[in-house]
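re: ur question from the group chat, yeah i did fold both. here u go
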Amino acid sequence: MDQGKLSRIVAAMNEQDMPQMIISDPVSIFYLTGTWIAPGERLLALYIHVNGENHMIVNRLFPQKKDLGVEITYYDDIEDGVEIMSQFIDKTQPIGIDKTWPARFLLRLQELGAGSKFVNGSVIVDTVRQIKDEKEIELLRISSKINDDVMAELVKYANQGYTEKELNAKAREIYAAHGCEGVSFDPITAYAGGAADPHHVTDDSKGKRGDCVLLDIGGFKDNYASDMTRTFFLGEVSDRAREVYEIVREAEARGIAAAKPGNKMKDVDLACRNYITEKGFGEYFTHRTGHSCGLEDHEWGDVSSVNEAIIQPGQCFSIEPGIYLPEENLGVRIEDLVIITEDGCDVLNKYPKDLIVLPFED
């Protein structure tokens, strides 16, 4: 296991008076071991105790060929994996449980009386994962650089008569060509009314002159996610659309300026939200301003108006204000990922944010 990351988790466990915990999330297990294990419906659990007596329970279907830095006990499908794991747990102490662990395993563990109290332990790993080390930051930079390149290629197809679904498929094709493991979420490739619906499901719509085109895309490169949104216009842009676009762009700039150590996560949200409200569009900014990003596109720790958490160096999160006007078939969102530095933030995305009108032939 990565001893630096493990030591940070153990320190956090001691601070929270949590002597032992179970980590079952394959992403968090990868974070600590550098190995992906996809157990499907089967039990997978990494048991950690602050005294260093750590253990992993893995089904025999997933034999590990390299040393993960922790003792492994294998079980097969006719054995009770939870009962085997319970033998390593101190039944006299509280135990933290990963939020992703299926209830069928937790209930069985409770039946066995393995632990004096069961608490949500996810905040421990989630908090540690929020602060990226130098290697992680470099991987995030690389992933975002590729995302810039993918956006530059994808936008060339946005005015070529593609449907939203075809544009979505083109995005996946471009990510694969850039050596990405896949997309970090289902690409949002939306025209007009689709862009005005933050929950829009990509369909067979095509763009027409004057429509906005919203491209919200991201990929996985070397396991780390990217995420960026840009909004373009086909052929022409109305004064109304231009006004909305410039408000969103300024709102995002204000959010970026507020993203610095010592501020609260809510300060970033409110920097964007208050400006949009001041301009008369507050009710049309219908979602939080951002989310943490790393091994997953959406990690724990959001940029919302109620998040009192203090921003710290090493955090990576999105800043993505938007204005959505369904009755006008207009939606604008601009999104970048930022890394928090010692005195501010570094914007990972370099793709331009000037209003761009794409050539369009009717």
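okk and heres the other one u asked abt
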Amino acid sequence: MSIGKIAPKRLADSIVEELENMILEGTLQPGERLPAERTLAERFGVSRPSLREAVQRLAAKGLLASRQGGGHYVAESLGSSFTDPLITLLEGRPEAQRDLLEYRCTLEADCAYYAALRATAVDKAHLKTAYETLQACYASEGSSNLSEEGAADARFHLAIAEASHNVILLHTIRGLFSLLKTNVVNTIGSLYAREKQTRSELMEQHRLLFEAIIEGRADDARHFAGQHIEYAQNVLSEQYESDRRMERSLRRSGPGMAAETDKSAREH
């Protein structure tokens, strides 16, 4: 039997692998600037020429991009499941918002489950910050707007995905982030239009979800995440049907229908 020699791994290969892992796990995020070459070389304990070679190889793969003024950045397009034109197309369609909620119900329930099982102390601190920011939006009812609240809500759910330590779930949620923010804003708007106690309902739902993850109660976390999305689904479904009934009523009472009604009354 012929046995070949094991080729030693080049230093640049190891650097490429480390940077790829950092991108994949979310340590380096889309659009984020890499630390200065000297700083990164010292952190890794490698020579600057080896680091430079690794960065060039990642740039060739499309994972990094250089910008005018210097520096390398993680490619912003990474994990973009939806392009900007498609997002614009989907944002104005109620049925697409409904479909996204159905998708979120399964996706975020799993994120919450794994976050409760795997979240580290650092993850929990990050999640706590995101949760408190969201609660601050709820508390400042008079001054906050739906856009700020939607962004805070989306960041809270993104923090849960990061704590799941499942890179597929994380990058799926990341890719949906822009659409997710819009979906949350539309959902919140419809929820608040329905009933005044909705804000306290949402606060309670997020509290239960947050505490289940922090306390490591995985099954409860999955349950509360699904329950939260289902609540929004039910309200939006009722709102959609209410809007459709109103549209039908307005069509029946339009100018054309009014004329037909007058004609019928004269004939009889």
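fwiw on the second one: The first strand starts at residue 64 and ends at 66. The chain has a mean pLDDT of 79. idk if thats what u expected
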